[in-house]
Design a protein that fits this description.
Layout: H1 10-20, E1 29-33, E2 36-44, E3 50-56, E4 61-67, H2 76-85
Antiparallel strand pairs: 1-2, 2-3, 3-4
Length: 97
């Protein structure tokens, strides 16, 4: 566990943000959600887990979803949480954009 200490501290995330804003970085996407720029990445394993990270780079907000169940909506859940934080309504189909 000591190996991972500080892995998600704000300074690390800010340094990664600078790297991630470079174009064509495989698997990372810079998108607009509710008028806020975010960098996101998803992943998982067919028989094991799902994950998603969304870093709202102008708002000092990071949402991370980790799940041991494949049924978890790892992309929709962070969008729903962001809608609460930003005070925006969300239609059911918007979870998947």
């Amino acid at each position: 566990m000591q190996h991972f200490k500080g892995a998600v501290e704000m300074g690390d995330i800010q340094r990664w943000t600078k790297v991630l804003l470079k174009p064509n970085l495989p698997g990372w996407y810079v998108i607009d959600t509710f008028g806020h720029r975010n960098i996101s990445h998803s992943g998982g394993y067919p028989n094991g887990f799902r994950n998603y990270i969304a870093r709202y780079i102008d708002d000092d907000l990071t949402i991370i979803v980790l799940s041991n169940q494949m049924e978890t909506d790892s992309k929709g859940l962070p969008r729903e949480l962001a809608s609460i934080v930003f005070g925006k309504g969300i239609w059911f189909w918007q979870k998947y954009i």
